[in-house]
Structure formats: C-alpha cells, structure tokens
Design a protein that fits this description.
By secondary structure, the protein is of the alpha+beta class. It has one domain: Umud Fragment, subunit A (Ribbon). Helices cover 22% and strands 22% of the residues. It is built from six helices and 14 strands. Strands 1, 2, 3, 4, 11, 12, 13 and 14 form an eight-stranded antiparallel beta sheet that branches. 21% of the residues are buried.
C-alpha cells in the first residue's frame, strides 16, 4: 500500500531581495514642496505682522511736547490692546479697560495728514475743564500734575494762562480755524465741556505743545493705544525728524548708526512709561 504520509519536499531558497532603484523626485513634486514651504513661511510672516500691528506697535518721539516724560529720540512700544469702550462685542472677553485721566495715548491727528501724536489725557467725556494762570481745573477741582513742565523762556501764550479763551483770541495762530469755529458749541460759562466719545489731551511740556487747546478734541476712534516701554532712546533733536529729502534722511540714518554707542541714552532703555 503506498505510503500516504506527506513527504516534505525540499524548499528552494528564496531569492535575495533586490533593492529598488533610488526614487527620483519629479520636477513637479519639487515645485510642490517648495510652494508649500513658501506658503507656510508667508503665513507665518503675515501672522507675525498682524500680531505685531494688532497688539503692539513701535513709534518714535519727534518733538519735545512731552518732555520730561518722553524725550525727542525715545523709541516706544505702544500697547494697542488695552483700551475698551468702543462697544465691540468681544470686549467683554478681553482684558480691556476704559481710558483714564492721566493716561498717555498715541492717536491720529484730527486734521491734516500728519504723523501720530502722543499726549496725556486731561479731560474725559462729560468733564468740565478750564485753565486759570496755568493751573488746570477739572470739574471745579485743581488737577494735580507733577509731570508738567513750564518754560519761563517760552514767551507769553494766552492759551497757557486762560482756557477756554475769550472770543477775541479764538483765531490767533496756531489755533486751527476749524477748532476756532467749533469751540463755542462746547463752552458753558467759563468752562469747556468734553462731549461724548471725545477726549481733551495736552502735552506735559505745556508751553511747547500743540494739543487740544489749539486743535480740539481727540476722537475715541482715533486713539491707537498707550505707550508702555522705551525700548531704545537716541540723543536727537526735532530737526532730526523734520521733513527732509531722501538723501538727507539717508545721511541722518548713517550718522546715527556710526555714532550709535555715543548717542544712545543707555539710562532710558527699557524704562516703563507713566
């Protein structure tokens, strides 16, 4: 009887695996990879720029109107994410606060196309204010202003001593013509009443400041934020930031760079702004 048991047949050795030829990336795939990289880089840059412009922005001080608090040549970081009061629905979820008297603000000048201004809030909406012999009164009380500087050598300016001004002083330069026409609407007795949504701002260097006395109220929507840090300060004058030709600006930048260590005010760097 034939043996039905299974006999294991010899198994042939498996052939050695043959390595696949190296994969050559097509031009299309290389282009796709580069496009994805550039797209990611572009998105990163956009987000960084958006975050910087939305939350914090850099400004420099071109005039002495806020001395001695802020000097010409101070470079500031401005918190654009601090003030609420615009009525946006998302304000209740974010750490906003209302503007307060004494806040230093950066805002858009209300008339000509002009660089941003920096001043201190003196009058809030609804406040009654006046100036008598250089003393500011708000709602009948003398305002304590330890930051204010008066320059005896500046010459006599009636708006430094009496505000609101008498009607015969309304059109004296440098008062803006538009403000001279509008101011009468806001005068009650001998006081100026700040309307809703508006703020009255002045410079700390009271005798050398173009401010609300001369051009009117600051609109809430024009306020960009509050400076909080001097990240760099360079010894400069107003002439360094005045309107000039392109070649003059290039020379000024080159001069600043070459004299950077000597012109930097090291004692002001990283100082907080109050």
């Amino acid at each position: 009887m034939p043996d039905e048991s299974l006999v294991q047949e010899p198994v042939a050795a498996a052939p050695e695996p043959v390595a696949a030829p190296p994969r050559v990336e097509s031009v299309h795939e290389s282009y796709t990879t580069l496009s994805e990289y550039l797209e990611s880089l572009l998105v990163t840059v956009i987000l960084a720029l958006f975050g910087t412009s939305f939350v914090v922005q850099a400004f420099k001080i071109p005039s002495p109107s806020m001395e001695k608090t802020l000097l010409v040549g101070d470079h500031l970081l401005v918190n654009k994410f601090i003030f609420g009061g615009r009525g946006h629905w998302y304000e209740k979820f974010l750490p906003y606060r209302d503007l307060e008297r004494g806040d230093i603000i950066v805002f858009k000048y209300p008339y000509q196309d002009h660089p941003h201004f920096v001043k201190r809030v003196i009058g809030l909406p609804g406040d009654h204010l006046k100036i008598v012999d250089q003393q500011v009164y708000v709602n009948g009380k003398a305002l304590d202003e330890p930051y204010v500087v008066h320059d005896p050598a500046s010459g006599y300016d009636p708006l430094n001593y009496t505000f609101p001004p008498p009607s015969n002083q309304l059109f004296i330069p440098p008062v803006q013509v538009e403000w001279a026409r509008e101011i009468r609407k806001y005068i009650q007795g001998d006081e100026l009443v700040v309307p809703p949504g508006k703020y009255f701002a002045m410079g700390d260097n009271r005798d050398h400041s173009s401010d609300s006395r001369y051009w009117g109220f600051v609109d809430r929507e024009a306020i960009m934020g509050r400076p909080f840090l001097i990240y760099w300060s360079v010894d400069a004058t107003s002439n360094d930031y005045s309107e000039s030709s392109f070649s003059q600006r290039v020379l000024a930048i080159f001069d600043t760079i070459t004299h950077l260590p000597a012109r930097t005010r090291w004692n002001r760097m990283l100082h907080t702004v109050h």
